[in-house]
Amino acid sequence: MSGDSDFRDVRSAPEVVGTVVGSVTAVDPGATASDSGDDMGGDPKGAGGPPNVTKGDPKSVENDTKPRFSKPALIATGVLALLILGLAVALFATSPTQQAAISSRTLVGKAAPPIVADTLNGGTFNLSHHQGKWVVVSFYASWCPGCVLEIRELEEFQERRSDQNVVVATVVFNDTREKVEDSLAEALKLPAGDVPWPVVFGEQRSVTADIALDYGVVGLPETFVISPQGLVVEKFIGAAGVTADSLDQAILKEIQRQDNQQDT
Predict the structure, then answer these.
(1) Tens of pLDDT along 53-71?
(2) Which of 19, 216, 223, 232 has the smallest number of Cβ neighbours within 10 A?
(3) Containing structural domain, residue 78
């Protein structure tokens, strides 16, 4: 009797139930709760042991502890992961050139970035000093064939508007003084240094490179039309789009737009 009493006390203690069950399973994987009860002289139904546990199938306990997810939840998680991955790729794949292109497109209708730099003839060009006038800013390099073609159109435009409030300025990009002077002289049939408008040239290339970056320039030639109010109203990419006529039309278009706003 004392042995039975001692056994029931141990089996009824919660902290050792798992130990007893584990030891039985390890010794005899085919044994059931009822078998263990009969062998030990206890309740045939396994009273006192963990309910609804089959000793013969250890995997049943493991399977019950595994997390379960529904198919819709898994699909939603996968879609979200793909979206996050795509966004990350798009952000990291955007090169500085692409970012500059985006900046350039959004510049139209906004205030023109400042330009303050030395010129080829030893002077200084400051864009803010020309507020109240129409300003055409072109980005130029001697190694750019389109720039040479465009410079002749700028010359014609300058001659047409010489008696009006119009200023043309050329910003040199990534070039040397000698090559720029020679290319301009050849294109305009003028002595070196006699270009009839300011040619912005920084002895340190970073000066004009920063200006080009501010304007979102991604290729040459690029030309901007700035209103007397200091707003960028038109942008031309490539030499094909820039002619004396197209520059005139850009100015007339903006004047008409302003007149329509005043009428309303």
Answers:
(1) 445 555 444 455 555 657 7
(2) 19
(3) 71-95
